[in-house]
Amino acid sequence: MQQKILLLDDEQDFLDLYKEMLGQHLSTLPEVRTALTGSRALSMLESDKYALIILDLHMPKMDGLQVLAIARRKYPELRVVILTGVRDEQFRTRAYAMGVDQYWIKPETDQEMGLFMESIETLLSTESHGGFRGVQSKSLVDIIQLECLSQSSAVLKISNGAVEGRIWIQNGEVIDAEAIGLTSEPAFQRILTWKTVSYEVLPPDPGRPRRIFTSYQGLLLNTAQAMDEAASQVVTPAQDDVASASDSAVMLADISQLTGVEFVLASVTRKKKRTQEFTGIEDPKPVAEWMEQTLEQFEQLGESLQVGQMQQIIGTGPQRKAALARCGDTRLCIGFGASISADDLRETMKTILTKWVS
Fold it and tell me: Domains in the chain, ordered, with CATH?
């Protein structure tokens, strides 16, 4: 079904301009309807289903906060965006306390307008895909900038295979991050080094204590500089291959010592070629072929069901149990003894994947 946007403002010229822009520049091609008064907007919400309402704050008779209060109570699934010319922190704080999704000052430049349009696109995508916003059309840096520029409050849940990290944003500021045993800025920088991620925007966590006091621009700049410094360390291809193979061998040996692990197979891409590194298996080829086929089939199933990126697969047989997972460009198959419990297997897999990405 075509999604509907309701645009509320007391200026007809503004309504005409944004109706045209929203209707033509969003890939979802929503149907945009307009209202000049709060009472008219509430009447329209009563008579039809809308995915999103964009509203101004200062309007005669019924202002935007009154409309927001009623809409939030009667239509809890409706996305709400404030778009105003009022630069008032008190209004912003009240709006977020009442449950607004985003609070925007009316764009004054083409760049600001582009970011606003991207944020609306993201909200509509969230509506149509059950909360997941983790498609690769935008990088994680883009998402952080969007959330901060729009003064949003949210928790970003970022998945790198089966390993997770979180970034807390409060009123447009990054206040904390966590990933694989790290917190604060080190965790933020580690998350941004992950190459293949999916993400989900969760409700804000106002009780989260602040551990990051650097601005989000400073965080992104510091992370970019750290990544540039790491990339500047010159390593010849031959040295790189030897180092990578050596690191993988040590990692496989460490994993094989974990309780319950019988074998480990890693399918690794180097120089655009996929090779198998393993321990505890005499002939890795049939296991590797089965792993690749199974992962591909489950990923296709996940896409067809629109349930997000596949994290890991656990299979149980009479002689052993096996777990499959992606970890960046590496695909892992871990064999366990049949006696290991499901809880212990999941905890061991969490340990393995944390080791691998760290």
Answer: 4-124 (3.40.50.2300), 140-232 (no CATH), 237-357 (3.30.450.30)
For the entire predicted model, the pTM comes to 0.44
Which tokens in the block code for residue 258? Answer: 């974990």
Phi-psi region of 61 (alpha: psi -120 to 50; beta: other; left: phi over 0): left
Asked if 55 and 67 count as a contact pair (C-beta separation under 8 A), the reply is yes
Measure Cα distances from 228 to 66, 145, 177, 231, 297 in Å: 49, 20, 21, 5, 37
Q: Who's near 90: CB < 8 A, 6+ residues apart?
A: none
Q: Which amino acid type is present at position 315?
A: G
Q: Contact, 130 vs 306, CB < 8 A?
A: yes
Cα separation, 167 vs 58, in Å, equals 33
- Coil, helix or strand at residue 342: helix
DSSP H/E element including 65: helix 64-74
Q: Read out DSSP for 212-224? A: --S-HHHHHHHHH
pLDDT tens-place values along the chain, 358 residues long? 678 999 999 899 999 999 988 887 787 788 999 999 989 999 999 999 999 999 998 887 788 888 888 888 888 888 899 998 877 777 777 777 777 888 888 888 888 888 888 888 877 775 444 333 333 345 677 778 777 877 778 888 887 766 788 999 998 899 999 987 789 998 998 888 876 566 777 888 889 999 999 888 888 888 877 766 665 554 444 444 444 554 566 677 778 778 788 888 888 776 667 777 887 777 788 888 888 888 888 877 766 665 556 668 888 877 788 888 877 678 889 999 888 888 888 888 887 877 666 5
Partnered with residue 154 across adjacent β-strands are: 169
Task: Give the Å distances, CA to CA, from 344 to 63, 161, 259, 326, 355.
Answer: 55, 19, 9, 20, 17
Query: Within a 10 A sphere around the Cβ of 46, how many other Cβ atoms?
Result: 9
Distance CA 269, CA 242 (A): 14
**H or E segment to which residue 8 belongs:** strand 4-8
